[in-house]
Design goal:
By secondary structure, the chain is an alpha+beta fold. 48% of the residues lie in helices and 9% in strands. It contains 16 helices and seven strands. The strands form two sheets. A four-stranded antiparallel sheet has the order 1-2-3-4.
Amino acid sequence: MARNRLTDAAIRKAKPCATIRRLSDGENLYLAILPTGVKTWQLRYRHDGRQQTATLGKYPRTGLDEARTRAENARKLIENNVHVTLHRRVERRSKLAANALIFEDFAKRWIAHEARRVRWTADYRREVEQSIARHLSTLHGLPLHQITSPIAASVLRDVENVVPMMAEKIRRRLRGILDFAVEEGLVPGNPLPARRRGPKIQRRHFPAITDPVEVGKILRNARAADPAKGIARAHLLAAFTAQRIAEIVGADWSEFDLEAAVWSIPRARMKIHDEARGPHQVPIPKQLLAALNEWHEADGVDAAVVCPAPRDPSRPITAEGVEKHYRNVLKLAGKHSPHSWRSTFKTLCAEAGKNSEIVEAQLDHVVGNKVAAAYDRAKRLELRRKLMQWYENELTAVRDGGEIVPLRQGGHPPPKAPRIRAEQS
C-alpha cells in the first residue's frame, strides 16, 4: 500500500485531462482533478448501502497531510454509521450560529450569494448595498436570532414613514436576508411574515407630469435648486435623454463619444441584458452636448464618473439620492420622479404625432425582430437624433417660456442665458 500513496511532488505534477481524473492515496482517499485544473480531496464510502463521496477540501489549501487527517476523522464517523457530508454541514452551521452572526455581516453574505445566483449587475448590487446600509442600519449590530417580528416591523414602519416609495423594496430585501438565514440553519424561522395574498390588483405605473406648463415648472425649479453637481447632472440627463435613472447614475465618461454626440450604454448596465442587441446608443442633442463638454473639461481627463458623489468623486451618486432630491427639494413626491421623464417623453411625442417605433427605440424597448433591429440600427439612430433634438427644443421652450425676464435699466432685457446650464460642473 505504501507504494501507492501520493506524494506532494506527484500531486504538483499531475495534469488535468478531458474527464475527471482521480489519483488514489489508499483507503478510498482520492485527489480528484477536474478538467479545469481544480484539485479536490474526496473520500469514498458507503452509507446505508449507498455509495457516497465526502469532499475534504481543495488542494493546495488543504495539503496532503491535512487531507489524510481529515480522512481519518471521517472514517471514525463512518464506523458509527454517520453520513459525513451531512454531519460536516450541520457542524458548520452550528458553529456559525454559536458565533451569533450579526445582521450587518450576514446581509453582506446574502448580497454576495444573490449577486452570483441571479447575476446582478454591478450597479444593481451597489444600489442594494446602499439601500440596506441606509434603511436597515438599525439592525446592523443585532445578532440574527435577536431580530424578532416586533423589531423588524418597527424598522419597516420607519421606512414607510420616511421614504414610502422604498418601503416595499426594503421589505422584500429584509425578508430575503432572513429567509437565507433560515436556509443556512442560523435561525429556526423568518420573524417577518409573508404578505397575505389579496385580490389581484393592476400594477401601478410611475406617476408622471406630462402637461407642458407643469413640465416647464419642474425644469425651472430644478435649475433654481442648485443641488450637488452629481444630482444636477443626473437630472438633466434624465430629463433630456429619457433614460432610466439607474443607468444614468452609473454612467462613465468612457461611454460618451462627444465628437459623435452619442452615449453608448453597455448592455450589462441596461435593464434588458440581451448582448445580441449591442450597447444602447443614445443620441445627444446640441445643448446637452455643450453641457457635457463643459462638465468633462471641468472634471479633467482622469475623471471616470459622470455623476459623482459629493463626498467621493470617484464613486457615482445613487438613484435614491436623485429620487430623494425630487421628493424633498422639488416637492414632487407622488407626482413625478426621475423615472417619470420616460413617460413624459413618450406622452409628448405621441401628442406631437412622432413615429412610435422611433420613440420606443429611444426607450430601449424591443421594436420588431432582432434581425430588423440590427439592420435598421444606423438608420434609427439618425431618426432618433432628429427626434431628441426636437424634444430638447420642446423642453427648453416650456422651461424658458414661462420665465418672467426682468428688464435692465434702459428697458433692455439681459443677455439670454444658454438653455441648458452647465455651471453645476
